[in-house]
TlpA family protein disulfide reductase (Dyella dinghuensis), 176 residues
Amino acid sequence: MHLRRACFFALLVLFSHVAMATTLPGSGDPAPSYLGRDANDHDVRVEDMHGKVVVVTFWASWCGYCLKELPILANVQKLAGANQLQVVAISYKEDYNNFRQIHHNLRKTDLLLTYDTKAAASAAYGVTGIPHMVMIGRDGRIAYVHVGYDESMLDTIASELNTLLAAPVPADTHAP
């Protein structure tokens, strides 16, 4: 009887740790660090942008809404200033050639386009479909997550961005 009870508690502890390990990040949580690799094949990490508001959006060449969104986000970043807002657009389930083509087409924007061929970033952020956007505050914590949004959410997204941009830079940070 004691062995059965001990096994039950061991399984309970195991499952609770597995459940905690697979909990996806949400509002208030530290943002997962890895954001893919840039066109120069360098790792891109959230902590490299500490002090800025970071918008992480997942896109694919087959997602018409995503391709429409990227130039809009580039304009928002330009208006806010790249020293205040960094948009990171991570290719989702795309091969490297498609990533390169989109990167070439958007080369005149200041978007930071990354690829994630091993799906490490999308897994860390819990992405199972697109569009998927995560807004990260200046402190490196997730502020807002939007999944499956469209044009009807623009006012909400703009309001959230304005709130994040109005927040002060943390004292331990030197924004570039």
